[in-house]
Specification:
This protein is mainly alpha-helical. The protein has 32 helices and no strands.
């Protein structure tokens, strides 16, 4: 069972035995920072994709007639959502499970012979219905109360003050009359003072949260204090709420220093938990952007001893990146120290490679030099890795001349093989575009050199689905005499190139340069534009509302 609406809302669906990032690659054109493109061009989520689990024994919920999401039968081999692995001897009989589990009756899941009248949950523990499951990132009812041993998920309730335990189904009895009127009345112009004593309830509602956010941007100090008095009492709860977290973020952006200090104090002792939570990590990032240095240092100290855990987490890695970007170096020394001996592991990790790039961007030479030396020991392997190649690209784009030359030296002698490699071809391009003049010339000579039998790497590369992009880049950066010699070598093969789908970009570039040579056209744009953006996407996009 796949729940794409929940997944798009940010629900993390994990499957046993599937490593983060999976086996797929990413676009040849994207400098890896946020995992947004597949190598073959398809958009994907930044989070691990759900994978089917092994078929479990028949019976259990399937034989008991459990209803799936929106009334569809739930197969017994449904995806496990935040479930724990089990062993066969730990699994009780399905009927014992159904009778023993107190919440099964809530979902009309009954063992044969059980009473037909379902019990209603206590008023203070209302279970989220399918719509709320999508909005709050929780499993649908059919899976919510299945014990972990059977591959289910823990029941998730919206506990807390009444104003915060509002469900998103239309006309729900727990939604206040004021919120119902606000959602239904499109003509009245509401002000913050009109929703006094309902600030938390509105913050947990999609439309109410947006209303408060917009008002806080232009609110007076008195109006902000009016909201803050109510919000502060439930701040921790709102920090991890799908809509409430944005209200807390607004106070870090537009609140007074006193209000920021109060919120920071409430976060003390919970920074790690918040950093690993989907919405809480956004609040931590926003706090690191707007609090004073002393509070920044206090926050990041709570992550000491848990840095690698955060780096490899789909939420926590954004917090580490933000700390590297915003917190003074003397306060994050323990973060950098934790990377020693781990550079290769992190560089080949879907989230770790982002953190390594941020470190090379923002940390000083004294901090990064030992880690760069460690990185260079694995250059040959990293250029061919689906994540590691982005780290090497980053070194070529932003590194010192000595580091760029060292990368080019590892590529020389293997230009043809690496150019035809799905991931390494990106690095070869960067070597040609950003290498020192002597290194660039050596690589181009290796490509254009003609062997005794009349063959050359150039002819093989321009017909390859990946290497042809290297040839395009080469045409952009070479000096005019070299470009003319390359065009002469390519022209006899133009007819053969037209037979390949991936040859059209090279043909177009060659024709434009030939026309420019004849004085009838402007120089073509860089080859990078044919494959998408070359600059990294911001890796801290999780903070945006």
């Amino acid at each position: 069972m796949m729940y794409s609406p929940a997944h798009s809302a940010g629900m993390a669906i994990h499957s046993a035995g599937v490593a983060p990032g999976g086996p797929h690659g990413f676009s040849r054109t994207q400098s890896y920072s946020d995992n947004r493109y597949l190598r073959n061009g398809g958009p994907v989520s930044a989070y691990p994709l759900p994978q089917p689990v092994a078929q479990r024994p028949t019976g259990g919920l399937a034989s008991a007639g459990v209803a799936g999401s929106f009334g569809a039968p739930a197969p017994y081999s449904a995806h496990r959502i935040h479930s724990q692995p089990h062993t066969p001897h730990q699994m009780p009989h399905p009927h014992q499970m159904l009778n023993a589990h107190p919440h099964m009756q809530m979902m009309h899941m009954q063992a044969p012979g059980a009473p037909s009248a379902p019990k209603q949950p206590p008023p203070q523990q209302q279970m989220l219905m399918p719509r709320e499951a999508m909005m709050y990132g929780t499993p649908p009812p059919a899976l919510m109360n299945v014990p972990p041993a059977m591959g289910g998920a823990q029941v998730m309730f919206r506990n807390g003050p009444k104003s915060a335990a509002v469900m998103e189904s239309p006309g729900h009895p727990q939604r206040s009359a004021l919120l119902e009127e606000f959602r239904g009345n499109k003509t009245r112009k509401y002000e913050l003072k009109d929703i006094c004593d309902h600030m938390v309830e509105f913050s947990c509602d999609q439309h109410g949260s947006r209303f408060i956010q917009q008002k806080l941007e232009q609110a007076t100090q008195d109006e902000k204090e009016l909201v803050f008095e109510e919000v502060a009492r439930n701040a921790r709860q709102l920090m991890t709420d799908v809509f409430g977290n944005y209200v807390i973020q607004k106070f870090f952006e537009h609140g007074s220093q006193v209000q920021k200090h109060v919120l920071s104090k409430q976060m003390e002792g919970h920074i790690l938990t918040l950093s690993l939570q989907m919405y809480g990590c956004r609040v931590v990032q926003k706090a690191l952007e707007h609090v004073i240095t002393e509070q920044q240092a206090s926050m990041v100290r709570e992550l000491d001893g848990h840095v690698l855990q955060c780096v490899k987490d789909q939420n926590g890695n954004h917090v580490i990146q933000k700390a590297i970007e915003r917190v003074p170096a003397e306060h994050i020394k323990f973060v950098i120290d934790s990377f020693h001996g781990q550079v290769y592991t992190l560089a080949t990790h879907p989230y770790g490679c982002r953190v390594i790039q941020r470190m090379f961007e923002h940390c000083d030479e004294a901090q990064t030099r030992p880690l760069l030396e460690e990185l260079h020991r694995y250059t040959t392997n990293l250029v061919q890795d689906q994540y590691g190649n982005y780290v090497i690209q980053h070194v070529m784009e932003r590194g010192k001349p000595a580091d760029r030359s060292l990368v080019c030296s590892r590529v020389r002698g293997h230009v043809l093989q690496l150019s035809k490699h799905k991931f390494a071809s990106n690095v070869v391009e960067k070597c040609i575009a950003y290498g020192e003049i002597k290194d660039r010339r050596a690589l181009i000579d290796e490509i254009t050199a003609v062997r005794r039998d009349g063959s050359s790497n150039l002819i093989n590369m321009m017909k390859d689905q990946y290497a042809n992009y290297v040839v395009q880049k080469m045409l952009d950066v070479v000096e005019e005499p070299q470009r003319e010699a390359i065009l002469v070598k390519i022209q006899p093969h133009m007819a053969a190139l037209r037979k390949f789908t991936y040859g059209k970009h090279l043909i177009s570039k060659v024709e434009k340069y030939m026309a420019m040579r004849d004085g009838v056209a402007e120089p073509p744009m860089s080859a990078g534009s044919s494959r998408g953006p070359q600059t990294p996407v911001s890796a801290s996009s999780k903070t945006s509302a």
